[in-house]
Amino acid sequence: MNQTERDEQQATVRLMRWPEVEEITGLTRQTLVKMAANDWFPKPVQVSAQITAFLSNEVEAWLEELKTRRVHYQNPEPWARRPFAAQQSTTTA
Question: Residue 87: its pLDDT value, please?
Answer without folding.
Answer: 55
